[in-house]
Amino acid sequence: MATTFAKAAESTPAVDHAARIAHVSKSFVTPAGQQLVLDDITLDVAPGEFVTLLGASGCGKSTLLNLVAGLDRPSAGSIETPGGRPALMFQEHALFPWLTAGKNIELALRLRGVPKQERRGEAERLLGLVRLEGSYGKRVHELSGGMRQRVALARALAQDSRLLLMDEPFAALDAITRDVLHDELTRIWHETGLSVLFVTHNVREAVRLAQRVVLLSSRPGRVAREWRVDIPQPRRIEDSAVAELSVEITEELRGEIRRHGQH
Amino acid sequence: MASTETTRKDTSPKGTSPGDASPEDVSPHGDMAGLEAGLDALDTVQTGRTPLRRTLVQKVLPPVVAIALVLVVWQLLVWAKVTDDYKLPSPGAVWAEVSDAWAQGTLLGYIWTSVSRGLLGFLLALVIGTPLGLLVARVKFVRAAIGPILSGLQSLPSVAWVPPAVIWLGLNDSMMYAVILLGAVPSIANGLVSGVDQVPPLFLRAGRTLGATGLRGTWHIVMPAALPGYLAGLKQGWAFSWRSLMAAEIIASSPDLGVGLGQLLENGRTVGSMPMVFLAIFLILIVGIAIDLLIFSPLERRVLRGRGLLVKS
Which of B24, B26, B42, B209 to mutate to test the interface with A (most CBs of A within 10 A)? Predict the structure, then answer.
């Protein structure tokens, strides 16, 4: 029932998971009655692991991410994130338009309790990490879609959480920009050693990025199948190995969707 | 198209030499950073300021022409003798009234009496209306209890408050302030409420994941996000302050109160001086416009421009 954000004490040895989702169910009350959205989901994300959650619309993948982020409570089951409050990135950049790019990051630092005199330098460092040095004073509307998502990523990293949740963060970008951001994300993931739980409906994206792809069935969402992706990084979205696995997963996903047309 | 891309790649050193490239940098395709720099350069919105000459032609010239046209029509009507002189004074007669008042040194006094009352009343309304609006916006019980009354009060003409205010407080400045507050507080509070209501839920969710909850959420997320609506409320609050004040000054005149613009108008009517009435009406109008142009519009433009909400044509 509980969502715990216990920060792991420095002295204790590393925990064996960055997120532990155990038998989580979620139902919503709708005019049509109780609707079960997630049914008995069990899923671990190991420290430093990159997992993508894949599913058709209505599979509750965003709902699951909200539960892990602590924005909502599960109806049953438990979620543990030992690394503290997870960072969350949305499909929309969700940057605050009244602040500059740099100040958006500084707000995250401030809310985390970073002392004032350290914030500026840390914000500049994070902007450098997403290759946006020199954009500190830019207003949100002065940035392109890809740059906004990179600032949003920097702001999420500013939370200094060991777990980064991403809710289709690149879905609204054009293909070339998305490609570039896949590269950036893989690079940053390697550099920071973060655990990432990445939600998408794009099979190729899932295979391009992840070490493990988890397919959710729809209505209610259940873990349908998992794939380990052993293709060595760095990968390209057009690599034949990526394409091959994508074809297999897409077949499975289509099967899941077809089942819903039959009744 | 392709050649543009190449040139950009070559001329942007920033993308190709990231200072923090670690040994484990996994980007194998060295041109990916260059590609990124190119995308950034292509997509970035360029903003600049309009040159002064264009501002003059586009913003200043049209109202000047409109005013000149009104003056011409007015003078033509006077020449055509559409009505008696005492009903429609000529622009010249009104101007003579202005220079008389200026020569006697009373003109600025009239204006200051009203403007100081209006601004002080408005500031009081601001101090009361802001927490009230926040309370209504954020506390469900308070909203259910007084929300409808507050928005209903906005449509109540503030003149209606003058008689009870005179009876409760007498013919003095506090009566004026009471009328101003009753007119302006609901506007300011309602502006803030609608500003808060229009805060995109995404900002609240983003704020919560960053740890901005409770009062910190209100201060760091809700208030700045609601600022445009709040400013619109302030603007309307000023208009209501000014209108309420004029109503109060016209109805409740007393020698102790000093002559503000409302009293000037009423005096003009009593002595049957139409130029004085016109003068008072113009001054009331000009002050209202001036405060808006000098204080609220620049403030609003600044906020909207900072957020990229001001579309330049």
Answer: B209
pLDDT value of position B311: 63
Range of the domain at A82: 16-86+162-263
* Residues A55, A129 share a domain: no
List, in order, residues 6 or more apart from B252 with CB less than 8 Å away.
B162, B166, B171, B175, B176
Which of A256 and B297 is assigned the larger pLDDT?
A: B297
CA distance B183 to B244: 6
Residue of A66, A111, A138 for testing the chain B interface, max B β-carbons within 10 Å? A111
Which residue of B lies nearest to A69 if distances are taken between CA atoms? B209
Q: Which of B26, B209, B216 sits opposite A187 (nearest CB)?
A: B26
Q: Is residue A3 part of a domain?
A: no
Q: Do both A109 and A237 map to the same domain?
A: no
The pLDDT tens digits of the residues spanning B60-69 come to: 888 899 999 9
Report helix, strand or coil for A56. coil
Q: Which of B29, B36, B312 to mutate to test the interface with A (most CBs of A within 10 A)?
A: B36
Residue A184: band (very low, low, confident or very high) from pLDDT cuts 50, 70, 90: confident
Q: Does one domain contain both A32 and A145? A: no
Contact B27 A187 (CB under 8 A): yes
All residues of chain B having their beta carbon less than 8 Å from the beta carbon of residue A99 are: 224
Q: Which residues contact B125 (CB under 8 A, 6 or more apart)?
A: B180, B181, B184, B185, B188, B237, B241
Distance CA(A192)–CA(A189), nearest Å, equals 5
User: Helix, strand or coil for residue A212?
Assistant: strand
Contact A183 B14 (CB under 8 A): no
pLDDT at A262: 67
pTM: 0.76
Looking at the complex, does the CB of residue B20 fall below 8 Å from at least one CB of chain A? yes
What the block records as the tokens of A52 is 């993508």
Q: Model confidence over B86-102: pLDDT tens digits?
A: 788 888 888 888 888 88
Give residue A114's pLDDT band: very low, low, confident or very high (50, 70, 90).
Answer: confident
Question: Same domain, yes or no, for A259 and A175?
Answer: yes
Q: Are strands A212-216 and A87-89 parallel, antiparallel or unpaired?
A: unpaired
Q: Which fold has domain B109-305?
A: MetI-like fold (1.10.3720)
Measured between CB atoms, does B18 come within 8 Å of chain A?
yes
Total domain count, chain A:
2
* Spans of chain B, pLDDT less than 50: 1-28, 313
Better-predicted residue by pLDDT, A9 or A133 = A133
Kindly state whether B39 is in contact with chain A, defined as any CB-CB distance less than 8 angstroms.
yes
Q: How far is B140 from chain A (nearest CA, A)?
A: 20
